[in-house]
């Protein structure tokens, strides 16, 4: 193979977006280990920005285009799988720290955009987290 030609046998890196599940002050990453989230190909992880931490996962951008998302939302089995995965991640984070869940399909173009959103809404998130500290919800 010529050095200036791409290696066709190497796995291609598909574009990803950052899916945000929840926001907290700090979440022990160990609490998220082994969670499949929405895409088993990438780990669920934390992303810090100032006093806040987002619980996120890289997901395939192709799986969350407008058409793909519309199709996903009309497939009851797929919608159920995604909703359960979203809820499972939020519950894992909230088991170890006060957590504000984010709506299903909260997507950002990358980690930098997540951090920018956390900074923009820092006061609101901190205000929402304040009453949750030191309390447990039963429902």
TrEMBL record:
Q: Per the record's keyword annotation, is Metal-binding included, yes or no? A: no
The coiled-coil segments of this chain are none
Recorded GO cellular component terms are: gas vesicle
Tell me, what's a Pfam family for it? GvpL_GvpF
| Subcellular location(s) of the protein | Gas vesicle
Q: Which UniProt keywords apply?
A: Gas vesicle
Q: Name one GO biological process term.
A: gas vesicle organization
Q: Which domain of life is it from?
A: Bacteria
Q: Does the keyword rRNA-binding apply?
A: no
Which residues are listed as membrane-spanning? Answer: none
The family line of this record is: Belongs to the gas vesicle GvpF/GvpL family.
Record's protein name? Gas vesicle synthesis protein
């Amino acid at each position: 193979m010529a050095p200036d030609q791409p290696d066709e046998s190497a796995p291609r890196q598909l574009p990803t977006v950052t899916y945000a599940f929840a926001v907290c002050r700090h979440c022990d990453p160990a609490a998220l280990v082994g969670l499949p989230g929405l895409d088993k190909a990438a780990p669920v992880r934390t992303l810090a920005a100032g006093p806040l931490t987002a619980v996120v996962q890289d997901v395939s951008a192709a799986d969350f285009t407008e058409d793909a998302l519309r199709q996903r939302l009309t497939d009851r089995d797929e919608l159920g799988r995604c909703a359960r995965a979203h809820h499972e991640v939020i519950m894992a984070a909230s088991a170890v720290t006060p957590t504000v869940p984010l709506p299903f399909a909260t997507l950002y173009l990358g980690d930098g955009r997540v951090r920018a959103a956390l900074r923009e809404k820092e006061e609101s998130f901190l205000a929402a987290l304040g009453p949750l500290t030191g309390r447990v919800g039963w429902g």
